[in-house]
Amino acid sequence: MNKIVLITGATRGIGKQIALTFAESGYDIAINYRTENEDLKNTQKEIEEKNVRCLAVKGDVSNFEDCEKLVKEVIQEFGEIDVLVNNSGITRDTLLMRMKKEDFEQVIDTNLIGTF
Questions:
Q1: What is the mean pLDDT of residues 11-19?
Q2: What digits encode the pLDDT tens for the residues 16-52?
Q3: Distance, CA of 27 to CA of 52 (rounded, Å)
Q4: What φ, ψ does residue 66 adopt, rounded to 5°?
Q5: In degrees rounded to 5, what are phi and psi of residue 79?
Q6: Secondary structure of 19-46 in HEC code, one letter for each residue
Q7: CA dihedral sign, ordered 52, 82, 80, 39
Q8: What is the percentage of the chain residues whose pLDDT exceeds 90?
């Protein structure tokens, strides 16, 4: 039985590469995403080409209820989670004095609260 890894924000960039590396090591992969898109489909396909299972789990890590739901979904599918990689993160590159309050809150909610 393969070990299970849950990776948040795993459809592209660093998260995708982390997922592919774990897949090459024989882990079954649960990738978290916020919105369906081509990156998600391509990442799933690349992972499955490594002869491991891949579960895509929708959820916004800045939302506590979504986090609970996505963890339950992964455990329901795989039975457990052996490794968690908190990869999700966003940026709103601008000077703080020009940043909207909503943008700042979204960065904090995703990058800090989402990790919790």
A1: 94
A2: 999 999 999 999 999 999 888 899 999 999 999 999 9
A3: 7
A4: -60, -40
A5: 95, -25
A6: HHHHHHCCCEEEEEECCCCHHHHHHHHH
A7: negative
A8: 62
